[in-house]
Design goal:
The complex is a heterodimer of chains A (about 280) and B (about 220).
Chain A: H1 2-26, H2 36-45, H3 57-79, H4 84-104, H5 108-119, H6 125-138, H7 143-153, H8 156-159, H9 161-174, H10 199-223, H11 229-249, H12 255-279
Helix pairs in contact in A: 1-10, 1-11, 2-10, 3-4, 3-10, 4-5, 6-9, 6-12, 9-10, 10-11
Chain B: E1 10-14, E2 17-21, H1 23-41, E3 48-50, E4 57-59, H2 64-86, H3 90-109, H4 114-145, H5 150-153, H6 162-175, H7 178-184, H8 193-216
Classes of the chains: A mainly alpha (about 280), B mainly alpha (about 220).
Chain lengths: ~280, ~220
């Protein structure tokens, strides 16, 4: 488990590095090396660390541990073929973590990042829609059952393509430099993570690596099915590159537009699942 | 029982009321517990505003009594939330959810600002109205099936009316609106991060639990 956890962290950070590199190349910049995010994590691990004088100290530190804890639990759930509902809960609780990061520091930049995280709650609804659509077809929310269903009936990607699109939008909303990345936009310095530096930022980088790995792995297992590990890693990179293209070619939306677009997508997806429910 | 949240790990019986832990409810319970401990032991952050045009700054100071009251309400909210996460009884679930709503009104209303008080009043009305569909749903479930035990209801021996499920969701939506009112009143500008987070966390957790309850029934 420890080996898998370490692999997930480093591969997730590598994916984020590839994401930055692809965006840079599309925009005709050289970009950082693909292992830049891993170097960031290592660099922050050995930098001077303290807690700002204005911060709520225990919350400031505790929320970093919670962030790593929930995504470690998420990885365990996915690898053990557990319930998709737990994964959905963890994904939503990540919002509280972002909120906690932002509010605990006392910095206005972090605070606005945290507030933006709360107001963009509509970005979670497409995930719930995906979960509901999967439950309608497979009659189970256990990832192991969903993989078994696909082994018999073919990938859900072709059976419920719009649910896969909903999940893809969820992935997109969590990717840095994307159209929905309002929580860490540049007018807020680094948004909710502005005041977390040193070891705390290294913890946050670990969390980001794990989150990216877990979400992409879930997408593959739930919509394509069980594949050999080497093929899963290749598909992960391919999906990531498509996400990078979207991020590179679309501007970051204003908070109001981001929430509006996410709400519209959520509305369409809810109607789609209602239709699926009626047809089944 | 229907294993929506994973295989049940542990049952704790209090007569005919059963508390049960699945991986899903246990995850939510532990998170509610962790954040309640944060509220209990952490001091709120200090907010400093720069005075433009010089080197001066404003330090926002909140009275100790106000912070103590908000901390008390946040701890009560955390305890109610933990109850709502693990209960196996529909009526107890509605009770815990309404208690979460009351505590959230308290957390918002404790801030001594006219805008926040207005928001607390409006949220109080919404939460109050939310209890009607919430308890109606429990009453309808009891009237149609003769039981309120989720473990019994999960056996699907008697069909539960769609209206009862819809009313349960509507009630939880009414109680779980606190973060929007906190945001509306810009409570984030007042120190007290652990307490505002408890507002958001409790609302999110009851939404997650009601999703499991609805799928279970």
């Amino acid at each position: 488990m420890i080996a898998q956890l370490l692999f997930a962290v480093f591969f997730g950070l590598l994916l984020l590095g590839i994401h930055r590199k692809v965006i840079a190349r599309i925009q005709r910049r050289p970009g950082p090396p693909v292992w830049q995010e891993i170097l960031h994590m290592l660099k922050f691990s050995f930098k001077t660390t303290w807690v700002p004088k204005t911060a709520s100290a225990i919350l400031f530190v505790g929320v970093v541990l919670v962030a790593i804890g929930i995504w470690t639990a998420a990885l365990f759930v996915v690898l053990s073929g557990g319930s998709l509902l737990i994964l959905f809960a963890i994904y939503m609780l990540h919002k509280i973590v972002e909120h906690g990061f932002g509010l605990s520091s006392g910095s206005p930049y972090g605070k606005f990042g945290g507030v933006r995280s709360v107001i963009s709650a509509a970005s979670e609804i497409p995930l719930f829609v995906s979960v509901a659509a999967i439950a309608i077809f497979t009659h189970s929310l256990l990832i192991s059952d969903i993989i078994a269903y696909q082994a018999l009936n073919g990938p859900l990607l072709f059976t419920i393509p719009l649910a896969a699109v909903a999940m893809y939008v969820v992935l997109l909303s969590k990717m840095p430099f994307g159209p929905f990345s309002i929580v860490e936009s540049k007018e807020l310095v680094s948004g909710y993570k502005t005041e977390h530096f040193g070891l705390w930022r290294a913890g946050l980088e670990v969390c980001n690596g794990l989150k990216t790995y877990v979400l992409l792995l879930t997408f593959i297992l739930v919509f394509i099915g069980g594949l050999p590990i080497w093929l899963i890693l290749i598909v992960m990179v391919l999906i990531l590159v498509t996400l990078s293209f979207v991020c590179a070619l679309s501007p970051m939306l204003s908070p109001y537009d981001s929430v509006t677009v996410q709400t519209l997508i959520a509305g369409i997806m809810v109607a789609y699942v209602a239709l699926l429910g009626v047809m089944s | 029982m229907n294993e929506i949240g994973g295989t049940p790990l542990f049952f704790l019986e209090f007569g005919d009321i059963v508390v049960y832990f699945t991986p899903f409810t246990l995850t939510l319970f532990i998170l509610a517990l962790i954040f309640t401990v944060f509220v209990l032991v952490s001091r709120p952050e200090r907010q400093i505003d720069i005075a433009f045009g010089g080197d001066a700054f404003y330090d926002k100071v909140i009275s100790l009594s106000e912070l103590r009251f908000r901390r008390f309400m946040s701890i009560a909210c955390g305890l109610a939330c933990m109850g709502a996460m693990v209960t196996g009884d529909v009526f107890d679930f509605t009770l815990f959810v309404s208690l979460v709503g009351i505590c959230n009104v308290g957390i918002v209303a404790a801030v001594k600002s006219r805008h926040v008080q207005n928001a607390a009043y409006q949220y109080g009305l919404v939460a109050l109205a939310g209890t009607v569909p919430l308890f109606s749903a429990a009453a309808m479930v009891a009237a149609t099936t003769g039981t309120l035990s989720m473990l019994e209801l999960a056996k699907n021996a008697v069909e539960i009316p769609l209206a009862a499920r819809a009313l349960l969701v509507l009630g939880v939506m009414g109680e779980g609106m606190a973060p929007f009112y906190a945001a509306k009143a810009e409570m984030f500008r007042a120190p007290g991060a652990p307490y505002v987070i408890m507002c958001s966390l409790s609302s999110l957790l009851i939404f997650l639990r009601v999703a499991e309850v609805i799928l279970l029934l």
